[in-house]
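To whoever is on call:

I kicked off a structure prediction for a single chain this morning and the downstream step that reads the tokens threw a length-mismatch warning. I double-checked the sequence; it's 235 residues and nothing unusual in it as far as I can see. Pasting both halves so you can look.
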Amino acid sequence: MVEIRTTEAGDTVREYRTEELAEAAGIPVRTLRFYRERKLLPPPRREGRIAWYDEHHLARLRTIAALLERGHTLGGIAELTAAFENGRDVGQLGELLGIGWSEETPVRLTPEALADFFEGEVTPENLAASLDLGYIATDGDAIVHVSRRLLEVSSALVREGVPLAAVLETGRRVREHADALAALFSELLSTHLPGSEDALARLRPLAKSVVEAELTMAMDRLHQRPQEPSQTPNS
């Protein structure tokens, strides 16, 4: 029988014995034990000889089932799980987003939803690169992407046939230039408007407009087709 336990913090936790968890997840007990041996599940809480599992274990089992349906192998899922558990947690998103300046909207995803965004491209290597860039962070059994815009653009590029690894590498290089541009505008404002935080916030859209306009013109110049020389009519 499922039990409800109250933690020291006053939270209520639903707990399952091994057989109950397997039934809730729709898998045989032997499969559950196999997953535990493969370290696909975190250890249960022990009370004497009884192993107690909670909703996090159930969510993990459902994620494993969803990823298996999407063609991932158990070995690949184990590597993805290790990458998630070794990555940044959502508590560090504040540092990644800055101190209230960001206009980006974080997106909360299940691991299987992330796999759907980048079908076939969610490898341990790409996951580690995304965690390292700070594009994603973990929050318990969920994933938080730092920016809806970046998520949608990255997914669109992958759908067009660009490998996710190349998208992430380009993102890393773009960030280096973006950091340099941010430092340039910050220096401009601090030189001419020292100590004015209000001006810094007020003029931020202007800096964005300059960068967007210059990038547009740069891409036009880069991809401009050479004009054919004009022909002088015969006299």
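Update from on-call: the warning came from a stale cache, not from the record. Cleared it. Sanity check on the structure: The radius of gyration is 25 Å.
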